[in-house]
Amino acid sequence: SNESFARVTVAAFMTSLNPTVEEVSDVKAAVISPGVARITAQFRTKGSGLSFSGEVAWTVFGNGVINASVRMYPSAKGEELLRLGGTFRMPAAYDQVEYLGLGPWDNYRRTSCWKDVFRTSVDDMFFAYSRPQDMGNRMETDWVALSRPKAAPALWVGSASPRAPLEVSILRYTPKELNNAKSLDRLPEKD
Asked: What's the confidence (pLDDT) of residue 1?
């Protein structure tokens, strides 16, 4: 059935994004209006002292636009939450970045940068630290778009509210790949 296909697909997708997802349940798919479908799923994470439950919802429009929404609820007890976010994978050809946020270089606080629309490339967001690590953060980001050279954006991500801007970094490596590499030559090859 479509629902069992959606359940297996959603579970595989969510665990591929984040291996700490322990349980995916209550997967539902419905047409909510002509040309618009919504898929929702509940999830729970595993990990150290801090765990989450939540819901992810994808609203798929007939014109190809997909709106993703995630609500997360931390466990009542746990440790301080240093960072929470999502990871999306895109084909390497989508290497042109445009965003409305603080720039033009990476920033982790509001100093020596300003808010504007900036254009850069994925490769220019990478800095060759002797020990690979997360980098390229852009604070107070209202939206970010990825495209191929001389093409319309294929991915556009926006904040849910102007009062809740995003922090984004766009790299060819996942945080786990950066963290596991002890030196630049140990980063996995990317095509």
From this structure: 44
Question: What is d(CA 15, CA 21) in angstroms, rounded to the nearest whole number?
Answer: 5
Contact by Cβ (8 Å): 177, 151: no
> pLDDT tens digits, residue range 34-49?
999 999 999 887 765 6
- The phi, psi pair for 106, rounded to 5°, reads -65, 150
* Type and span of the H or E element at 179: helix 175-180
**pLDDT confidence of residue 18:** 52
In DSSP terms, which residues pair with 119 in a beta bridge?
98
CA-nearest of 127, 120, 124 to 146 is 120
CB burial string 136-146: b at 16+ within 10 A, e below: bbbbbbbbbbb
Find the helix or strand (DSSP H, E) in which 139 lies.
strand 138-141
- For residue 179, which of 129, 126, 133, 130 has the smallest C-alpha distance? 133
For residue 116, what are the CA distances in angstroms to 49, 162, 168?
39, 14, 15
The model's pLDDT over 82-138, given as tens digits with 9 standing for 90+, comes to: 667 777 788 889 999 999 999 999 998 888 899 999 999 999 999 999 999 989 999
Q: What is the DSSP annotation of 26-92?
A: EEEEEEEETTEEEEEEEEEE--SS--EEEEEEEEEETTS-EEEEEEEEE-SS--------------T
